[in-house]
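Example 263.
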Amino acid sequence: MDYGLKGQAAIVTGSTSGIGHAIAQALAEAGVDVVLNGLGDPVAIEATRSQLEQATGVRVRYHGADMTRGDEIADMVAFAQGELGRLDILVNNAGIQFVSPIDQFPTDKWDQIIAINLTSNFHAIRAALPIMKGQKHGRIINIASAHGLVASPFKGAYVAAKHGVLGLTKTVALEIAEAGITCNAICPGYVHTPLVDGQIKDTAKARGMSEEAVVRDVILAAQPSKQFISFDQLNGMVLYLASAAGGGVNGAHLSIDGGWTAG
Ligand code: NAD
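Predicted structure in complex with nicotinamide-adenine-dinucleotide:
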């Protein structure tokens, strides 16, 4: 399918793993030059980068900005413009999770989750908007969560950050509504990534359950479809929002959660 994105340029934060990696791959396959970002082994990251570049023929670059650092995020945006000549699509995806009752929640974990899951979106959007305004074209896609709409116990920092992402999304959307730019949030339910794998293992240990039972009775208990959301399903939503067809969608949160937040 041709999404009309050939020749555009994107940054996908947190794209060395999971959802971000899948989105970066889908954008590259659609003809978009991509800046990858995220933590990991430099050798493995370089292998991923060059593999994607060779497989798709687009330019693929990597910037190691730490999403807790506003200065590094601004540098990543400048790097993208310098390397790729433009910036059409910003996918704010990097995120982490930590599970604890609120009265025992480590304060440094709270600060880290708010920084990576929420404040990094602010820094990236702040740096990207002047470029997008100059081009009169831009698509900002924030990967929030079903937890941007509803809560679960013990995920206080994550739920607060993701609700914050929806507030930021709507505010930015109103500010840029006439500038040829859109800003939207995607709210996925559970996707089977390393982040969720960690939760499955931790929950199995904490509750003395098998990992299979945790998937069935805990993780997917909230997801009426009883199935993980696939990378292809998520990628389809990102490509739609990035395309001309998605140009009228602004300030929206799009749920992709197997019915979780319908209840
Ligand atoms: P993941 O752990 O597989 O990937 C997270 C990415 O973020 C990695 O590339 C990691 O290196 C990067 N990252 C973490 N801390 C960073 C930092 N300080 N600086 C730069 N990069 C950093 O996780 P995932 O499941 O793919 O999650 C991606 C996003 O999707 C997150 O925002 C998450 O909240 C959201 N989400 C995930 C699910 C799910 O079920 N997996 C559901 C809803 C929303």
